Every structure is written in structure tokens, then in C-alpha cells.
Amino acid sequence: MTAGVAAAQGRRGPPNVPEILPGALAGLCVFLYGATRMADTLGELGTARVKARLERCTRHRFESIGTGAPWS
User: Alpha-carbon distance 58 to 56, whole Å?
Assistant: First the structure.
């Protein structure tokens, strides 16, 4: 039975791993690269603002307990 006939009848053969694997690895690499870049950028942008907010929330012990932020 040829591949065209099997596909027309709704039957599928085993996946062609050598054909799928390079595309899957490339997609995974692009995803990981993008996630790393996004995390680095968000870390740089939010650092000053997060520190300022934590300082405001932890001025007094009771405020820090209410917000769940640790105090020093």
C-alpha cells in the first residue's frame, strides 16, 4: 500500500523522526533563547521599581506583615 492510499484511508504510519527532529530542536532553541532574553530584560527593567516598592512596604513591621514581605 502506498503512502497516498494509506493517508486517504485514514491510516498513518510511524512518525518520520529524522524529518521531525531538526525542526523540533530548532523550535526549542528559539523558544529558550526568547525566554532567556525576556527574563533578562524584565529583570533589568523591574529591579529599581521592585526595590523601591519593597522598601515602602517594609518600613514598618506591621505593614510588612500585612503585605507578606519580609522585614530586616
Answer: 6
